[in-house]
Write a structure and sequence with these properties.
With 217 residues, the protein is α+β, with helices and mostly antiparallel strands. The protein has one domain: L-fuculose-1-phosphate Aldolase, CATH 3.40.225. It is 36% helix and 16% strand. The protein has 6 helices and 8 strands; from the N terminus they run αββββαβαβαββαα. The protein has an 8-stranded mixed β-sheet with strand order 4-3-2-1-5-8-7-6, with helices on both faces. A hairpin with a 4-residue loop joins β3 and β4. α2 packs across α4 and α3 crosses α5. The protein starts with a helix and ends in a 9-residue tail after the last helix.
Length: 217
């Protein structure tokens, strides 16, 4: 089977989208890119995540041709492939309809540096211009807005994150949704204090050496 490992992971993380409250129903989509083979595995369109099996995952090339699979791929395939064509630091993409990021998307506002955890995605999380779902224009707007970052809010739509791998992309999605929840809630009782660029730059450096694969404990 072509990209068997990636297909299994797409199924696993699609179900985690529901379990973690990052989407509802069949909302959202996930893909994983194999750079060596220049192919990506992407979730099928409109399929219940708990009925989905690895055979249902569609494998595509960077020209958006179906290489393996019998199902119709996600309507947002262009939203995924543009990152694999143009960004070397993105090998997995998650699009979710998480509640608080979608609240910000509805009022078309970015998520500022209200928490140091924002630095997992960059200095802030911009809000991309609106375009109809499934279009090339949406892919371009989203890609451009996410320049230098690993998360972006999609106007009137939801959240998109990218990572070096699917685990990182999912962690960013969870943490950014948490930051959005805190930020939106804080605005209901006062004015959130935003961390300045100097502090975020320092945090970005600290995150670069954070964790078990670094020299810092």
């Amino acid at each position: 089977m072509v990209l068997e490992k990636e297909r299994q992971a797409v199924v696993k993380y699609c179900r985690k989208l529901i379990e973690s409250g990052l989407t509802k129903g069949t909302g959202g989509n996930i893909s994983i890119f194999n750079r060596e083979q220049k192919l990506f595995a992407i979730s099928p369109s409109g399929m219940d995540y708990y009925n989905m099996e690895k055979d249902d995952i569609v494998v595509m090339d960077l020209d958006n041709n179906i290489i393996d699979g019998t199902k119709k791929p996600s309507s947002e395939v262009l939203l995924h492939s543009i990152f694999y064509k143009k960004r070397q630091d993105v090998s997995a993409v998650i699009h979710a309809h998480s509640l608080y990021c979608t609240v910000l998307a509805t009022i078309r506002e970015k998520l500022p540096a209200s928490s140091y955890l924002i630095a997992l995605a960059g200095k802030d999380v911009p809000c991309a211009d609106y375009a109809t779902f499934g279009t090339e224009q949406l892919a371009e707007f989203t890609f451009n807005a996410m320049t230098g970052r690993k998360a972006v809010i999609m106007s009137n739509h939801g959240l998109l994150t990218g990572g070096n791998n699917i685990s990182q992309a999912f962690d960013i999605a969870e943490q950014i949704e948490f930051c959005a929840q805190v930020y939106v809630t804080a605005r209901s009782i006062g004015k959130p204090v935003i961390l300045d660029d100097k502090e975020i730059a320092l945090i970005l450096k600290k995150f670069a050496v954070y964790g078990q694969n670094s020299q810092e404990s």
